[in-house]
Design goal:
The chain has 70 residues and is mainly alpha-helical. 47% of the residues lie in helices and 0% in strands.
Length: 70
């Protein structure tokens, strides 16, 4: 069984900045989308998690479509 949400996506969703930092340092893909189709950066921006968003941007995450943030 494979979880439909990648670990990085789940860490962002849960607001776990330390885990996000560990995962991006280990090479996790900052643009790997969850089952809903949103990239992790869109999730961070939606929940106003600016420090997590900064980590994702530093890891090379692409800016999401503004409509994906609502």
């Amino acid at each position: 069984w494979i979880h439909p949400r990648p670990l990085l996506y789940r860490a962002v969703w849960n607001g776990d900045r330390a885990m996000v930092a560990v995962l991006v340092a280990a090479g996790a893909d900052p643009d790997l989308r969850g089952c809903e189709g949103s990239p992790p950066l869109a999730v961070a921006l939606h929940f106003h998690r600016s420090r997590i968003a900064a980590l994702l941007r530093a890891a090379g995450a692409q800016e999401p479509d503004p409509q994906a943030i609502d």
